[in-house]
Amino acid sequence: MENIQNVSQTPQDINSVMYNMGNFKGEFNLNKSGFDPKMPGHSSVHSMILRQQPRTTKDVGAGIGLPKEVRHEMALMLDDHLRALSVALHQYNKHHWLTEGAESFISLHHLLDEHIDKTEKNIDMVGERVARLGMVPTAHPVTQHELSYIKHEVEGRYTMRDFIRNDLEHELKIQEMIRRQIIRAHELHDFGTVQVLEEVLVDREDLGYHLYSVLEDDTLVRGMNHLLDRQDDRAGDRPMPPGSKLQ
Prior knowledge:
Layout: H1 12-22, H2 68-97, H3 104-132, H4 141-147, H5 160-187, H6 191-215, H7 225-228
Helix pairs in contact: 1-5, 2-3, 2-4, 2-5, 3-6, 5-6
């Protein structure tokens, strides 16, 4: 029993994320439909022919046999996910461009590449479903951020752990909101939306798992101290038996 080591503590990064998740009051913008003069992208001088206002749903012609009120509610919720995924994509791009450090410059650079690709795919899936339900998806970038249930981090360069922690918080919030709509979609018998969101949810859980794993407390990189302090401690900071074959 004396050889049993204490279990490592959960990194503060992950504790911070879980604390923020406990305060998350994500709500869908079900009361925001049509033009709002105060909303970015909703007011301008142009000569285009208007066929449908933003976040409104067609009365007929959607080609999906669900009542308009069901299509409208589901499309509004989906549009909220669309905005959140767009914000997440912008933040992933920033972190992808700014990767640095021994563990980040190559490995995280490629990992975030995958996250960007998955997020772009999910944006297209959700946007297509919004349109198929007969609603106009929100596409203006300023409006997307204004109404998104997640927000982009403040501008500037921060540590890679800060970046990844912020991305993980985004993923957990997106997962939570998607689960809420899946439950509601089942109640309204909108099984097409359920299928789309279940696939998106699995993707987001996969990406969240990647980020959580990166923030765990184990690492193979110890920096250059073992070359500078001449202690020959390349096996790690813990004592190792002289005859160990692991050294």
